[in-house]
Amino acid sequence: MIDDRQHIDAPLLSIRGLRGRVTDAPEEILRGVDLEIRRGEIHALMGPNGSGKSTLAKLLSGHPGYEATGGEVLFRGEPLLALDPDERARRGIFLAFQYPMEIPGVSIANFVRTAMNARRAAEDEIPVLDFYDDLQAQMATLQMEPTFAERFVNEGFSGGEKKRSEILQMALLKPELAVMDETDSGLDVDALRLVAEGVVALARERTSMAVLLITHYQRILNYITPDRVHVLVRGRIARSGGAELAMEIESRGYDFIREELAPAAV
Amino acid sequence: MSPGGAATADTRVPAGELERHAEPWTEEPAGGLAAPPSRPLRDLTRASVERLSDVFGDPMWLRERRLRAWDVYAALPVPDTRSEAWRYTDLSRIPWTDAETTSGPPPPPEPTALDPRLASAGVVFTDIATAVRRHETLLEPHLLRAAVEPGLGKFAALHAALLDGGTFLYVPPDVEVELPLRTLRTMPRDGAAAFPHTLIVADRNSRVTYVEESSSPTLPRLAVNCAAIEILARAGATVRIVTVQEWGRHVFHYGLQRARVERDATVRSLVVTLGGRLARAEIQSLLEAEGGTSEMLGLYLADADQHVDHHTLQLHQAPHTNSDLLFKGALWGRARSAFSGLIKVSKGAQRTDAYQKNRNLLLSAEARADSLPNLEIEADDVRCSHGATIGRADELQIFYLMSRGLTREAAERMLVLGFFEEVLARLPLEDLRERLRSSIRRKASIP
Questions:
Q1: CB contact under 8 A, A85 and B395
Q2: CA B225 to CA A208: how far, in whole Å?
Q3: Nearest chain B Cα distance for residue A91, angstroms
Q4: Binning pLDDT at 50, 70 and 90, where does residue B38 land?
């Protein structure tokens, strides 16, 4: 009984004292981050440019250009940082990239189907027709033309198409934790709304999915209401609060947090 | 292009999926003459070629061509790495002269079941031996003359001297063959040397697609396949040719493919190199008259200790001619590849467009690719460009794919398939594209 409750209460993601940097760079960008996310929760991670938001996303996904220099990360109770990126993905972490890579010659459909099958046993591959039904339904939700599935991954995509393609992959791969790295950047109002509504629909459909929404601006939070908001400043979480914290940043900027932090930082 | 649309439409005949299963030789000698014993290539003499010609029952003209070729062969040194053309391919490391010639000609194959409508339109699609007997007047002006001659090199000469079978395709003026014609080649014996020949003559304003697939299991002893394909595209003709080489790893493959492109004619080729231990392919397009166009595509995937060498020529001899070459290769293991390509524009060939691109993807630390693009331009009003790249798989692309759950191996495989798609996309034959993708997938899954 007690064990069960502990299991239920255990955070999906637990980050403790995480430090990290660009591989082999002299300076640490993250200087001791603590963060816990439970199933079904939506967390917003905000902060000024250079505060380390994207570095956190990259460390969580296993980007080869970044390394952890201290602390630990537990995902579903198990250490994460030693795992290869594909193993992390198969355990349920999904990173929506700020700048997704182009993969010439590989169609969205082929890519996503291969990725979906990578999580399943060889004899349990998703039937092709089921896959296409699923794909077309999700594309319709995101207002994508059916022919989009045959385009090469990110090649010649507009900024909005790239972000929608990331959300499409997320919808089909059904992660436990979606880390969204500046998914709102570079989008006009309509594209932003479309992407945000896509995320909201997914979160509603899969109530156990947790989201870590990394953003510089508050505007995406007009569509997605976070359970918690954290502000990262100079590699540490300087403030945490509810959705109202984002509103405060919107009206006051990040400076007030920097100023609060200033005496302690030295 | 064709005079009168109606005439063209009348002769437009669907060919069906025709297949010729050509086996270069067999254990059983045939014909009235006693077959000569099979001999290693190194022991051959002019008398051996005479004997071979007797056994094949050659007409005089063919016998003379063989003997002249033998003389050229005998006079030429074995190419070595001191010559520019063989700089990256060291033949001394394979005992190719140990391979043995055939012990006799193949029995005449069953006549090819060519669609009767094509046959009545005058299309000839048959094996070389049958063509010698039944279509001599069509064959004689072109065989070993249309585009392939002994003077092209040591192996071209050896091929011409020992030519032992192959395919003859003739398409009469204004005839359009809609569906691809195919030849499948196998190599039934190890330790043997084969000299298959393909001759394609596409007469004025005709149109044809030809697919030649060679495959065999891997056998213990080194075998030699010394092949040539000659293509004559007469004025206004369009020829598409796809060759797929999937020999076992015991084969030294030499393949010369040479096309002559006449006025307003088009030749499009795709050379796929997957098999063989050492594969050397020479692909040449001669644009002889105005309006000639040549597309030259190539795709190679090598692993383990395979060595592949592609040597290309785009020769512009007349104004307003176009050529576009794209060769892409991926290498695993300790595989090596060499590409050397020359665009040559003769003095009078103004308004030429010539492009050449070779791209190589290295997927292991030990794999190595060399690429030598070359331009020789004597005209002054031309558009030419060439480029070569040799690069490793992009770690960020691999990371992106892995971040979706693909293993590193699966991610590399996906990048390779995508890499080749640029070439495959230019082949408007979906069935063949899919067949090539599955060959690539199969090969890429065992790096």
A1: no
A2: 62
A3: 9
A4: confident
Residue A186: pLDDT band with limits 50, 70, 90: confident
CATH of domain A2-265: 3.40.50.300
Contacts of B349 (CB under 8 A, 6+ apart): B287, B316, B317, B318, B319, B321, B378, B379, B382
Are A171 and A209 within 8 A, CB to CB? Answer: no
Tell me which DSSP letter residue B40 carries: B
Contact between B125 and B168 (Cβ < 8 Å): yes
A100, A105, A114 member nearest B410 (Cβ): A114
- What's the rounded Cα separation, in Å, for the pair A189 and B435? 45
Which tens digit of pLDDT belongs to each residue from B167-200? 999 999 999 999 999 999 987 688 999 999 999 9
pLDDT reported for residue B350: 96
Taking the CA atoms of B241, B89, B394 and A112 in sequence, report the sign of the dihedral they define: positive
Q: How far apart are the first and last CA of chain A?
A: 47
| Interface contact flag, A115 B405, Cβ < 8 Å | yes
Instruction: Work out the burial of residue A235: count CB atoms within 10 Å of its CB; fewer than 13 is exposed, 13-18 middle, 19 or more buried.
Output: buried
Test mutation, A84, A106, A153, chain B, max B CBs within 10 A:
A106
Mean pLDDT comparison of A7-11, A261-265, B288-292, highest-scoring range = B288-292
Question: d(Cα B94, Cα B13) in Å, to the nearest integer?
Answer: 46
Phi and psi at residue B160, in whole multiples of 5°?
-65, -35
The residue extents of the domains of chain A are 2-265
Contact B354, B323 (CB under 8 A): yes
The predicted pLDDT at position B325 comes to 98
pLDDT digits (tens, 9 = 90+) for A70-112: 999 999 999 999 999 999 999 999 999 999 999 999 999 999 9
Position A32 pLDDT exceeds 80: yes
pLDDT at residue A122, rounded to an integer: 83
| Apex A175 CA angle, A170 and A181, nearest 5 | 60
Instruction: Mutate one of B394, B401, B419 to test the A interface: name it (highest A CB count within 10 A).
Output: B401
CB under 8 Å to A190, separation ≥6 — which residues? none
Q: What is the pLDDT of residues B407-435, one digit of tens each?
A: 999 999 999 999 999 999 999 999 999 99
Q: What is the least distance, in Å, from the CA of A149 to any CA of chain B?
A: 15
**Could you tell me the maximum CA-CA distance found in chain A, to the nearest angstrom?**
61
Hey, what are A148's tokens? 């989009």
